[in-house]
Structure formats: C-alpha cells, structure tokens
Amino acid sequence: MNYQSGDIMIARWMESAVTFKKCTGSKITFILLNQLDLSLTVLAISLGLTELNPFVRFLVQTPVLLITVKLIIPVLIAWIMPGKLLWPSIALLAAVALWNIKELIIFFF
C-alpha cells in the first residue's frame, strides 16, 4: 500500500462517518435488532432452551466471542455500510427476533 492509497482509505472511512449521520435510523435499527437478538438468545438459553444455530451455540460458550460478534461487529458494520444496504439484514433480523419471541411465548404456555 502506498501513501496515496492510504489517504484514499482514510477518506473512505471519513465518508462512512458522514453516512452514519445520513442513515442514522437504519443503522440504529440494525444495531438494536442485533442487541434484541442477543438478549432473546441469552434469555432462551438461561431458561433451558437450546440454540439451533451451531455457530451461535459455540459463541454462547465463550462470552467474549459472543459480545464481539453480536455487539462490536454490528456497530462496525453499521459504521461502514450505507444505510440502504442494511435493509435486507434489518428485515432478516426482525424475522429472527419475531421467531425468537414466538418460541419464548410457546415455551411459557
């Protein structure tokens, strides 16, 4: 990497900071849905339910990895990605959260 390409990379990071201000709603929604998913997963596991996703099941056993994947990485993704590109992920996360809520309701009744 030469000096000029380093400047370009820094300029792109600064542009992403500006887009965070432009697309704050979608970026905050993305982050909050990730946190809701994390909270519902931890609640379900504490109630004795099993995590179906093998990757997340592994992460739950190592809290530092779980926090990294479900807190730090979503914030970095929201910072870097334009808000309009997050909408498919937001829709998927909303569907997952609704599924988790449904499963918890079924568990309690």
What keywords describe this structure?
109 residues, 83% helix
Give a concise summary.
With 109 residues, this protein is mainly α. It has helices spanning 3-22, 24-46, 54-61, 63-80, 87-108. The chain has one domain.
Give an overview of the whole structure.
83% of the residues lie in helices and 0% in strands. Helix 2 runs parallel beside helix 5 (87-108) and helix 3 packs across helix 4. It has 109 residues and is mainly alpha-helical. It has one domain. It has five helices and no strands.
Largest sheet: none
Strand composition percent: under 5%
Helical region count? 5
Query: SSE order in H/E notation?
Result: HHHHH
Q: How large is the radius of gyration? A: 17 Å
The average pLDDT is 85
- The shape is elongated
Whole-number total of structural domains: 1
* Helical residues, percent: over 70%
- Uncertain stretches of 5 or more adjacent residues: none
- Decide which structural class fits the backbone: mainly alpha
Cα-to-Cα separation, first versus last residue: 59 Å
Q: So what's the oligomer here?
A: single chain
Number of strands: 0
Q: How would you summarize the topology of this molecule?
A:
Blueprint: H1 3-22, H2 24-46, H3 54-61, H4 63-80, H5 87-108
Helix pairs in contact: 2-4, 2-5, 3-4
